[in-house]
Amino acid sequence: xxxxxxxxxxxxxxxxxxxxxxxxxxxxxxxxxxxxxxxxxxxxxxxxxxxxxxxxxxxxxxxxxxxxxxxxxxxxxxxxxxxxxxxxxxxxxxxxxxxxxxxxxxxxxxxxxxxxxxxxxxxxxxxxxxxxxxxxxxxxxxxxxxxxxxxxxxxxxxxxxxxxxxxxxxxxxxxxxxxxxxxxxxxxxxxxxxxxxxxxxxxxxxxxxxxxxxxxxxxxxxxxxxxxxxxxxxxxxxxxxxxxxxxxxxxxxxxxxxxxxxxxxxxxxxxxxxxxxxxxxxxxxxxxxxxxxxxxxxxxxxxxxxxxxxxxxxxxxxxxxxxxxxxxxxxxxxxxxxxxxxxxxxxxxxxxxxxxxxxx
Amino acid sequence: xxxxxxxxxxxxxxxxxxxxxxxxxxxxxxxxxxxxxxxxxxxxxxxxxxxxxxxxxxxxxxxxxxxxxxxxxxxxxxxxxxxxxxxxxxxxxxxxxxxxxxxxxxxxxxxxxxxxxxxxxxxxxxxxxxxxxxxxxxxxxxxxxxxxxxxxxxxxxxxxxxxxxxxxxxxxxxxxxxxxxxxxxxxxxxxxxxxxxxxxxxxxxxxxxxxxxxxxxxxxxxxxxxxxxxxxxxxxxxxxxxxxxxxxxxxxxxxxxxxxxxxxxxxxxxxxxxxxxxxxxxxxxxxxxxx
Lengths: 360, 291
Prior knowledge:
A: alpha/beta; D-Maltodextrin-Binding Protein, domain 2; 2 domains; eight-stranded mixed β-sheet; three-stranded parallel β-sheet; B: mainly alpha; MetI-like fold; 14 helices; about 0% strand
């Protein structure tokens, strides 16, 4: 019996040693140039295991259940903040991250709101939430001067009624939709006051009958194929739809606009779980990603802006020159951020959202 | 001794794969939400006594206070009931035809029913998105033959959910009915006809009762998973499709409220188990009375 335990211990120790040679990364789907993954393995000799997810909620559930087995994960700002509070992450060891000198202070100042002093995370990509339209069809329905860059298009029932037949998708993300509805009626989009949040309900209910689907990824294909005319979604996703439509050459022209009333700015942050099996390797991965050329290669591939100032000189004109990706000063001023809802308010928000989606 | 072991195996199986997980879920349903890992309190770490004294039925009371939950249960029951009925209507004739087909064809026909399982369930449901969408095959075809002049909106409605459930669970209906009909002794029908039954009456008086067990098994196999279905309504259903599977997902992922999500799951299980237990008791009593 004792022998058996000893040999089991030896096997576990061996497995532990083999484990240490692996780095497990859990990132959003379609969110990196895969050449970078091979490059990382070649440079460090570590084996990289790269898995993907498509919603913050799925990631958060794994983090809060514990023992996810991942070394690097990529939650968005508000989710990161809550998971830090739950004790899900470990502080970064800056001595192992020489490339952190490349980070962009403008972005860091904003991410510090979620992660004070950026002690737990580095920015990977950031973007805005806004309006994607099939330009031809929307102008055909609403006329040449259709408000394609304004929340007026989304939340004015008169506009939506006309667009209904052509198809409209909204994000299935209450933390994005409710702030937008509040912004439209001139309230504080980041309000945590249930009475203010309740004011979003009539705005959303007013256009609900005209919305075909609330979903957070289907709109990419639906826009690109011409199945729908309008989507309220994430900047890079809509730009991806634009490129897919252009590649397919199907006569569909997609445009992305951050709402002129103000758009939500979000940040996807790389962090190391508290129980990461290989924190050493995780730091190597973060340092690799913060290399100016590597980061630029990732942005050039996924069409999202990054939080790396040094990478800018390596960005292609299509990315750095596109105000939908790197907004100009005036638009940047107009962007707002949100903070996580406390548990009780979160319930109010989810309930309101269920009501909007199902009518019950 | 051998008998004890033989009986113990299924009970151990039930204990390990059903009762213990259920006890865990039930315990979580009595806990409170917390911002921690795991996201509820109290846990076994607090000591057994503290843990037990911290449990209460608050979450179940909460479920009765909001009409969302019973509406979702009712709407799921309705969708599961009608899709089981539709599956039976489609599945029975298919199983009947298979059982009546010439002997040498049957293996092939059985193979054809099982064949869809070779592809992932998710991909098969996703394929329906392509078939039913506004620009999809079905609308293209109907427009082409001139039955309709404008594309029908089927995707993202309850109709699409019914189509998805009936399609997905059809084999689970066909197989048990087929196996009941396959074993049916053809001479019984001949005897009924010799005794003056019309073909229809013989079918109704002989074939249906003898395939009853297959029908019941098929209906359970369709109804139970359809009731808690999540994938089909979220891919094919619209914003108005209210099903308990989606509510459970939202409690778990959006509200990250594991205790309320567990309470929803416990009630879902009770809704399924109580009628099944009652039904089995009734069957047993009838079987005993028949002796």
